[in-house]
Design brief:
There is one protein chain. This protein has a domain of 59 residues. The longest helix is centred in the C-terminal third of the chain and has 13 residues. The protein has a three-stranded antiparallel sheet, covered by helices on one side. The radius of gyration is 16 Å and the shape is elongated. The chain has 85 residues and is α+β, with helices and mostly antiparallel strands. Strand 1 and strand 2 form a beta hairpin. The two termini are 24 Å apart. The chain contains two helices and three strands, in the order H-E-E-E-H.
């Protein structure tokens, strides 16, 4: 992102902000972020270009979210059968 582009995007109407989701099939379509701070519970966030978005707090819930994230391509409407991007 160019210097100042963030401020320009902040001033735009929501319908004028570029869609950050990939349009190229070779680009990732789902993400998983796991945070493990020195103090406090582990947290995770998983999302997909189809709109699927979940968060988890605590080790057990984070492990469940990892499993859901791994299984998501099988039910995702934006991923053709057999792809795991």
């Amino acid at each position: 992102m160019a210097v100042g582009a963030r401020e320009v995007a902040a001033r735009r109407a929501p319908d004028q902000i570029p869609d950050p989701r990939p349009t190229n099939p070779g680009q990732p379509g789902r993400w998983l972020t796991i945070r493990t701070p020195r103090t406090g519970p582990a947290t995770a966030e998983a999302w997909c270009v189809c709109g699927w978005h979940l968060t988890a707090h605590g080790t057990d819930h984070v492990h469940q979210l990892i499993s859901l994230h791994t299984d998501h391509p099988a039910i995702c409407p934006t991923h053709p059968e057999g792809t795991t991007s």
